[in-house]
Amino acid sequence: MASGAIESFDNKARREFESLGRTRVYRGELLRHPVYTRVLHWTVALFFFLALFTGFGIYLPWLFRWFTPFFGGGPLSRQMHPWFGLGFVFFFGLQVLNWLAPMLWTAADTKWMRNVHKIVSNEEKMDPPETGFFNAGQKVQFWEIVGGCIVFIITGAILWGGAKYFGGTAVAVSYVLHDISALIMLGGIFIHIYQSTFGEPGTFQAMIRGAVSEAWAWTFHPAWYKQVTGRDPVQACEEARRKMEGRR
Length: 248
Hints:
two-stranded antiparallel ribbon, mainly alpha
């Protein structure tokens, strides 16, 4: 019943946002992310960096005090930080509902992780044929952010309430856990940015335009390509290669 309610909510949200904007898919492309998904992604990113920058202004004022004036100064940055954090957690929660099903772990993901060194080093030109809508690396980051959000909520509430309500020890521990979680998440974001630009060329446009080339799909997510087109990804790649050679 819960999964049905989530799917119903997600489908309704997709329809509402599609009425506000169109996703153009040209010949040789596939729809990857509809308008709703893209809006969620960039809203999550916005609140993440707002929370990150105001957080840096609080924890490392000697290094980052140069940009706190953008948020009205140090005291206002301190007041805005928890609200930006709540915005990040809220919109990422909507993204969890949007991506819950394709982010569930499968046997194919375990196999992907065993061969991650070959994939990262480009020893394998195509991802394993079982790789679906998301690969195992993307799923690991997704669930790391889920865990980080839980840590942020708990530690953030303690830090917001202060020692008066939770005691000095709880506040001290929360500072450490809050910072560690933020640093882990920041490291993951750097990896995410690299993979979406240089690591997997063509990925960035998926979150800008919502569409990807068929070549991108059969290279990085062959099982998803087969699911949406009904074609064998290896065969499609070979056919495209022969056509390119024939034009030379």
